[in-house]
Amino acid sequence: MGDRIPIEIILHILSYLPKKEIIKLLTINHNWFNVVSKQIYNTIVLRDKKDLFNIRNLFTATAKQSLQHNHGFYSSYNYGALVRKLDLSRLDCCNLVTDPVLRDLTLDTQNLTSLNLYNCHQVTDTIFKMILVKAIHIKHLFLAGATQLTGNALISIRSKPPILQTLNIYLIPDFFHNMSSRKLGALKPVLGNLRTFKAGKLCTRHSEILCTSFEGLEELWLHGATDHQVRSILMQHHRNNTGCLKSLTLKYCKLDKVTFSYIPRSIRHLTYEHGPCSDYGWLHKHIQNLVTLRLTYSADFSLDEHLHQARALRVFAPPCISGICGLPHWSSSINRLILTIPMVSEDFDILMDAYCNQLVELQVVGSGLQKSFGRFMPCLKIFVWKVEYIPLTRFQTLPRLIPLLRVLAIGVNDERDDNIVNTLEGWKYLEVYHLKVKEPSGLEYDFGHDFQYWEKHDDVCRK
């Protein structure tokens, strides 16, 4: 097999197969076992206690095997060495992840490139430093909610020059807090090489040193940062004039007019949510280049005034619905529409007439829009309808109207659970769903699969 087809091509082909089909190939022969093992253990995503127990035992056993130079019958590889991505963000109980557990999971993961420790709040710098010393190829660190970790551990990164590209420290406000100016200065090569940085409040005694360290960012995501911190980072990019910052997300950040003026023209994706803004004049110089625009503060915002040049816009979450009917005239290429404010059915019909054949994502609020969902939407993959409840008969028509749906959230009136289950089975590609169900008796309950994780995914990982 290996003599005829390069392993890289085989792995690329295997990447299109379901895991249960790939596992069947393990029993063909020794060579296939080695190749298939590389595909199966390239990415490890742990979801429950059983997954954690099995993978921990496997990695510790094969690590001992490797030390004894006894590789067993099938594979000469240490399974830990095959891992490139280790994701613990899906665990239903993150209290299970302690320093000893994480040590066993990473005994021989020297080829690790991506590590997600979302909400693993029992993990400390001690084991985190050990991982960074061994994993010289690490590029992506998703640490949101791992509250005991600090920036001191990043000094352990050994690669020269540093190759870390993604750092997510959302929900760790003290990550840089106790670091001295000397240690923050030592981190400049690491932070200066970052392409994506996500953080909540940046609590530090040396804010200027920290905020001027991000020189090569392509994506900046901040939640609750101060006006001074945001301005310092944007001014650094303004001084360097690199034009590399493409995506800017600011949530619960109170900025003044001067700070807005430093938003670079290179921005293609802009989100400003839950932060006051009395003047959107700064938007004029960016609007013609924006592909994504999400605004959720509606003070004196006029769609007509600001969006008539939005020719490149693909993703739009407007802060108000005033003038929304004119959107198809400004931008004909919208494929993701997030409407968080209730609107009348006549206005919604205009939008659906213009975009129903091209929308990939639609999020909408309102109970008077049921008649508008009789259209065939061939491209729609994400549908979130925040409505009280729709009739079961209306819900049962959706698989026919939205055949490619992958994510669904909706409320349904139902008399029997099997009616809903049968309808869900009508979607061939459905992966994530959340249903609010109301019975005739008035009893309400929820059920779903992976929707909470999907909602928080932007916080946990990179977009």
UniProtKB/TrEMBL annotation:
<dbReference type="InterPro" id="IPR036047">
    <property type="entry name" value="F-box-like_dom_sf"/>
</dbReference>
<dbReference type="InterPro" id="IPR032675">
    <property type="entry name" value="LRR_dom_sf"/>
</dbReference>
<protein>
    <recommendedName>
        <fullName>F-box domain-containing protein</fullName>
    </recommendedName>
</protein>
<dbReference type="InterPro" id="IPR001810">
    <property type="entry name" value="F-box_dom"/>
</dbReference>
<dbReference type="Pfam" id="PF00646">
    <property type="entry name" value="F-box"/>
</dbReference>
<feature type="domain" description="F-box">
    <location>
        <begin position="1"/>
        <end position="44"/>
    </location>
</feature>
